[in-house]
Amino acid sequence: MAIETLPEPPSFETTKRLLASLINEGLASATIQGKTAEPKSIICLRKNDSPDEDISLLVKAAPGALVQDRDGEVLPVIQPSMFCPPVLVASKGVQHETVEAGELFALLSPWFGDLASQDVLDEISRHLQNSGSNQG
């Protein structure tokens, strides 16, 4: 699955921070697709303990990023600068690209239903969207 790297829009700064936080805080599992030494390595994020989850995020590692892994599982030492836009969202056989953190979090909010109410998750999504919009 090829992901073409795009120029980085300002709003992607918020998205990179969200992705790094999801991995570093253990809120999502992340695996490497391809070799970590290759500049075109892809990081795949999925819901923890749910390999059959319908939604997955694929994002290209930045050239030169040293993504540390153990047996393909990304270790939680990710820096936001390790990601390149866009994020490929794969869900139920349909794929689309985005750079928007609010959109991503809204799609992933069912993953966190046991951690917070839907109202709280919706509010987080709105704040992420606003943060991304204010980056420019």
Describe the 3D structure.
The structure is a single chain. By secondary structure, this protein is an alpha+beta fold. It has one domain (12-134). Helix content is 28%, strand content 26%. The chain has three helices and seven strands. The protein has a five-stranded antiparallel sheet with strand order 1-2-3-6-7, with helices on one face. Strands 4-5 form a two-stranded antiparallel ribbon. Helix 1 (12-24) packs parallel to helix 2 and helix 2 runs antiparallel to helix 3. The longest helix is centred in the C-terminal third of the chain and has 17 residues, at 118-134. The radius of gyration is 14 Å and the shape is globular.
List the SSEs and their pairings.
Blueprint: H1 12-24, E1 29-33, E2 42-46, E3 55-61, E4 69-70, E5 73-74, E6 83-91, E7 94-98, H2 101-108, H3 118-134
Antiparallel strand pairs: 1-2, 2-3, 3-6, 4-5, 6-7
- Percent of residues in beta strands: 25-35%
Mean pLDDT: 88
**Number of structurally distinct domains:** 1
Give a count of the beta strands, DSSP E runs of length 2 or more: 7
Helical residue percent band: 25-40%
Biggest sheet, spatial arrangement of strands: 1-2-3-6-7
- Unreliable sequence segments: none
Q: Structural class of the helix and strand makeup?
A: alpha+beta
Biggest pleated-sheet summary: 5 strands, antiparallel
Tell me the span between the first and last alpha carbons. Answer: 30 Å
Quickly count the helices.
3
Per the principal axes of the C-alpha atoms, what is the gross shape? Answer: globular
Instruction: Return Rg in Å.
Output: 14 Å
Order of helices and strands: HEEEEEEEHH
